[in-house]
């Protein structure tokens, strides 16, 4: 997809201490649960207490992360708000369904239903900013954030000097997590999440988080990274993924040898991590390999965190030991490839270049 697309502000709320602007995994939280929550920042700095009482976890995370990204970019009003979510505001959805059962489908208040829709986060951000611009939410499973980003890139082609807010949000909810455990998506045996990259059993761990960034087509010294390209495809064999990678790199006139690092969405699911392992042992054998889901867990928009991680690496020009997946050492970082898939579907590639 042609056209300039720069990241000039980015923020992530996750299961690690990622809201401190200077810290870079200096203190790692080692989760031992298979289902764990994001670490709450001080929401009161960004949301009025009266409004916060009526907000679910995903709304609080989304509103806060979006404002942090806007503040970093120095933008008061975005020209569009585009969000991606895999399952939306699950907590309010479950509460509403429980009320239907407990009240025999009578005397129901509409509040929980209104707040349970997938576009609630985007709507709340717009209400807080008084933003009446383009506002869309995409629900495309593990490709939700990438689809939102592709829409943002298309919007940037329409007009110069635009600033668009793009984000991915997902939250933990009790009953849906139980269902994912029953269908084998979540591991059945206890696991120290820090060891997730070495796991060979079926399933993964699940978590929640919100990553927002402001993208623009305006060249500026405030820009952190340029998103050269992003692509998605659904089902593929490991061999077909490698073919897609070669075509993607060729389209962008980038060689594998030009990559300073590759950020992989390895999540410890022994049934599907083979997609990553084939590339790690093959075309990426001589490239610095980076992982992050052993730190923040898995959810449908976890891949958005890879953009936060890439931007952090560009700014710091160093790599914490905790994210390294091989012994390759890199002295400087200018070009990074991102690759993610979930259970053999919703594959995505993205190329980031330092500004």
Automatic annotation (TrEMBL):
What is the top-level taxon of the source organism? Bacteria
Is tRNA processing given among the entry's keywords?
no
Query: Which UniProt keyword terms apply here?
Result: Transferase
Q: Which residues form a coiled coil?
A: none
Q: Which molecular-function annotations from GO does this UniProt entry contain? A: 3-oxoacyl-[acyl-carrier-protein] synthase activity
List residues of the Beta-ketoacyl synthase-like N-terminal domain: 47-211
Gene Ontology BP, a term: fatty acid biosynthetic process
Q: What is this protein called?
A: Beta-ketoacyl synthase-like protein
Which organism does this sequence originate in?
A: Aquimarina intermedia
Please name the taxonomic classification of the source: Bacteria, Pseudomonadati, Bacteroidota, Flavobacteriia, Flavobacteriales
């Amino acid at each position: 997809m042609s056209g300039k697309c720069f990241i000039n502000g980015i923020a992530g709320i996750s299961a690690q201490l990622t809201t401190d602007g200077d810290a870079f995994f200096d203190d790692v939280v080692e989760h031992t649960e298979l289902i764990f929550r994001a670490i709450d920042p001080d929401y009161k700095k960004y949301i009025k207490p009266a409004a916060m009482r009526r907000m679910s976890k995903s709304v609080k995370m989304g509103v806060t992360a979006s404002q942090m990204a806007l503040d970093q970019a120095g933008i008061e009003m975005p020209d569009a708000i585009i969000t991606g979510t895999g399952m939306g505001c699950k907590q309010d959805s479950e509460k509403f369904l429980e009320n239907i059962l407990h009240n025999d489908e009578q005397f129901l208040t509409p509040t929980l239903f209104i707040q349970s829709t997938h576009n609630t986060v985007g709507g709340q951000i717009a209400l807080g900013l008084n933003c009446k611009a383009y506002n869309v939410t995409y629900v495309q499973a593990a490709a939700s954030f990438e689809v939102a980003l592709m829409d943002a890139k298309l919007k940037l082609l329409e007009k110069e000097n635009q600033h668009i807010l793009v984000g991915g949000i997902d939250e933990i909810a009790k009953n849906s997590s139980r269902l994912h455990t029953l269908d084998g998506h979540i591991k059945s045996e206890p696991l120290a999440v820090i060891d997730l990259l070495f796991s060979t059993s079926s399933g993964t761990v699940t978590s929640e988080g919100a990553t927002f960034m402001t993208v623009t087509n305006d060249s500026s010294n405030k820009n952190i990274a340029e998103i050269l390209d992003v692509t998605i495809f659904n089902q593929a064999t490991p061999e077909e993924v490698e073919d897609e990678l070669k075509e993607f790199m060729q389209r962008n006139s980038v060689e594998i040898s030009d990559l300073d690092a590759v950020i992989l969405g390895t999540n410890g699911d022994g049934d599907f991590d083979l997609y990553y392992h084939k590339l790690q042992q093959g075309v990426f054998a001589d490239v610095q390999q980076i992982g992050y889901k052993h730190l923040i867990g898995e959810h449908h928009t976890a891949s958005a965190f890879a953009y936060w991680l890439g931007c952090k690496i560009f700014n710091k020009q160093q790599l914490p030991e905790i994210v390294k997946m091989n012994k390759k050492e890199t002295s400087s970082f200018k070009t990074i490839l991102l690759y993610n898939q979930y259970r053999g579907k919703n594959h995505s590639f993205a190329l980031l270049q330092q500004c």
